[in-house]
Amino acid sequence: MNDISHYIDMLADIYFYMILIYVLMSWLPNVRESFVGEMLGRLVEPYLRPFRRIIPPIGGIMDISPIVASLSVYLVARGLKVVIDAFVQ
């Protein structure tokens, strides 16, 4: 069980950092058009898109949907660990 919990935490951390890097890349010109930017876009944008539809940008400038999406990654990971704990024991 401890191994499964560790892998869930590791995957949640990796996806959190992918979202973070993708958001930080938006501050630098032409970085999203690079190979890494396009790869991250393919992995992160489908997850961020529903949050962007629900949460409008604040003042038309500041997008807080990546923050909510990152929080939901951790909440889902924690929920998975609770469910797995319930069935393993």
From TrEMBL:
Q: Does the keyword Iron-sulfur apply?
A: no
Name one matching Pfam family: CCB3_YggT
* Keywords of the record: Membrane, Transmembrane, Transmembrane helix
Q: Transmembrane segments in this chain: where?
A: 7-28, 54-77
Q: Does the keyword Transmembrane apply?
A: yes
Family in the record: Belongs to the YggT family.
Q: What is this protein called?
A: YggT family protein
